[in-house]
Design goal:
By secondary structure, this protein is an alpha+beta fold. The protein is built from 3 helices and 11 strands, in the order H-E-E-H-E-E-E-E-E-E-H-E-E-E.
């Protein structure tokens, strides 16, 4: 009889733990942590998620596609600079449509306050380019069934040219602002 009660008690606990996780949405936070991939942050009415951030090598077959669409006047990085790609995903969890932040609302800042701004990328030439888009309720950016959605990065690209001195000035932080130069609405430490 006692063994049966213990079995019922253990079964009830296992069931309670399993049921408690069902149907929960991910817990969303205003500021991400150093395990930045897959962390959600709020910036205005839109929820953002960093998919991946990394240095880009223009001589690599995969990375060359991320550098497509730069203005012809763009100079390549000097020996003391490198391309750095930040790939984002956005989700409108609201009952109304909202625009995602345009590239100019994002910047990268190192621990000394050096600020890097994204380079313009022509979305007609680069299917990964981040652009401001109107998201309907429960809509996402990139949209399902797009190259950026299914691609290896799983997100829209913000492209930065950073100084290699940034390695000595870590951590780097991606900031999402309320307009260019505006108040910081959310920040995510970058893995550099």
């Amino acid at each position: 009889m006692r063994a049966r009660r213990v079995t019922i008690l253990i079964s009830s606990l296992v069931l309670a733990i399993a049921v408690s996780g069902c149907g929960d949405k991910p817990r969303l936070r205003h500021t991400a942590d150093s395990n930045n991939n897959a962390t959600y942050v709020f910036a205005g009415p839109i929820t953002y998620q960093l998919q991946i951030s990394r240095e880009l090598n223009g001589y690599s077959t995969e990375d060359a596609q991320y550098l497509a669409g730069l203005p012809k006047s763009t100079t390549p990085p000097t020996p003391s600079q490198e391309w750095y790609g930040v790939f984002m995903w956005a989700w409108n969890q609201n009952k109304h449509a909202y625009y995602t932040d345009p590239p100019g609302d994002f910047d990268v800042v190192d621990s000394l306050g050096t600020m890097y701004h994204p380079y313009p990328i022509n979305p007609a030439d680069n299917q990964y380019a981040w652009t401001s888009q109107l998201l309907l309720p429960d809509g996402t950016q990139p949209a399902p069934d797009t190259t950026a959605w299914f691609g290896p990065t799983g997100g829209g690209e913000l492209l930065f040219k950073i100084d290699t001195t940034a390695y000595a000035n870590r951590p780097l932080t991606l900031q999402i602002r309320n307009g260019p130069g505006g108040r910081v609405e959310a920040s995510i430490p970058l893995d550099l």
